Structure formats: C-alpha cells, structure tokens
Amino acid sequence: MFATLAGGYPLGALPGVTDPLAEARHRRASDLSSPDAHADAADRVVTELVAEQAAAGLAMVHDAWVRWPGGDGLALARGLLAGTIGPAEIATAWRWADDGIDAVVKQVLPGPWSASLALADGDPARAASIRPALADALAATTRALLDATCPVIQVQEPGLAALGDDPGALHDAAGALEALVAAVPEGTHLSLALTGAAPHRSTHDRIAALPYRSFLIDVTAGEDAWRLIEQLPAEQGVVVGAADARKPGVDDPEMLVWAATLAAESRGRGHLRVGIATSGDIDHLDRRQARRKIESMGTAVVLAKLGPLSDVARALQADPATCPIGSLRAMMAAHAAAQR
Q: What is the distance between the alpha carbons of residues 142 and 19, in angstroms, rounded to a whole number?
C-alpha cells in the first residue's frame, strides 16, 4: 500500500513565508525578469513541493503542474494543443522533479476525452474536432516521458462520470482512451484517474475493460465507485481516492486503511496492488490544510505496514460499520450497498 495525490496541490506559501512563484510570475508578466529567472523559481518550488509530499509519507509524488501557466491539467492541455508547451519540455520538467527525490515521481496528464470537452466549453462537435490533435500531442508526450524513464503516467478523466448511460458517448470516450494506450509501447504503466463523481453503472463493464495498468477511483462518490472497483480485474491496480478533496479537514487514518483493505480484498487483488489518494485536486485548500491532509495519508501508510493489511484494519476497527468514525461508517455503508 502506498499514498499519492490524485491531482493538484496548492502552490501558496506556508504562513509567514513569501510565495516565490507568485512573485516570479508577477515579475515575468511585468517584464521585470527573464524567462530563465522564472524557470529557476519554478524549479525551486517543484523541489520544495515534491519533498513536502515525500516527507508526509507519499511514496508517489508529482510536480502539481507548477511550471505551466494556469497551474492545472487543463492549462497543460491548452498549451499542448496550441504548441506553446511541447512533449520535450514536459519530459525535462519531469526529470527535474525526479532528480534526487527518494520517491516515485509520476507525471499527471489531462485525458483526451475530458480535456477536449473542457476546451470546447462542453460542445461535443467542437470537442470531436479538437480531440485528434490533442490525442496526438498526449501520445507524443507519453513517449517523451518514457524516453526520460518516467515510471507511471496518470491520465485524468473526470469527464467519464458525466457520460451517464449514453452508449454513443461511451463508445467515443473509450475509443479515445484505447487509442492513447495503442500509441505507446506495450507495458507502459498508464493509470486512469476517475475523479469528481462515479461513472454510471451501465458504463462499468466497458471502463473496466480499458487496457490501463491501474485505476484511481474517487470512492467518496459513493456506492457506484465501489461497484466499478468490483468490476476491475484482480491484476489491475486500484488507488482509492478516499481522502476527501472537498473538505479541508484531516481524514481519519483508520478510514484510509480500511479503504485500501476493501480494494485489496476485492477479487483477491492483494495489498501490493492498492494505494490511497486524495479524491481529486486539493489546490483549492490552504497550504496548511493540504499538508495536514497528506500527512494523514502518510500516517495511514505507516499503520498499514504494521502487519498484513486486512489484519491491521480489523485491529484498528473490528466493526467499521458501527464504529464512532463517521467517514468510515459512511464508506462501509456505500461498500455494502455496492455488494447488493
């Protein structure tokens, strides 16, 4: 079991510390500094952020899109489509994040389906016209990252939850995601992240058949998220997005251990193929809140390593469905409903 972020992380400074990236961006926008000076400031912030994640106990970290204007996955998609950001630049940025850090550094990329819809302001026809060029840019970026030895590439697809039970949209979305896998070497660890809500249960079989090595699934979305996990083959890794990205409070480590346990026991997957994550981007949180949230995930990882995962979970809370921890009771109720 390991812990990781699902997506964004706040870039603001901790209390009493000047925000070096905000200052560098302001100076660059005002032509008061050079591109190299801005890049140097971004490099320092990336080093700080990945070190902060690792110190909190996250074994898989990422750069939170610090370097790119807009600072999120959609901004990265926009830059790739416009040609203002290239695959080589993203690979170089990943190398910097990976340099000297004692943790696995993944790269998080926008998914071709969700990003094209967002860039098209939800217009399906316009999104369809954008998608081929974006898909080509994402495939080229993935190959550049592989050349740089990036071990895990996470593809963000929050828009799959909005498909509903539309078979035509599901066919198109699945086709775009399969094409990305087909465009990169066999064996590439592509991880598909489904955040924000759970996909409609009518789509679960098709999503589970997508050839991704692992899935990050927002289990705060309720019983349909657990139904999807039950559909995934045992050989596919599952990262449960159980640390609630919507709430600033600290997540209970016992609930996080139980979330991983449920995923590990699903279809006999085992603890080596599971992880825990935030349920989505936490870049809207205060930096202190975000730091406490990832530290609670690190605590859960420490607890999970005290013995066999299932034994640890039951030692922490023998009857999680009726325990005093509200978040754990709610998760167990959603999991139980998914079994019916």
A: 31
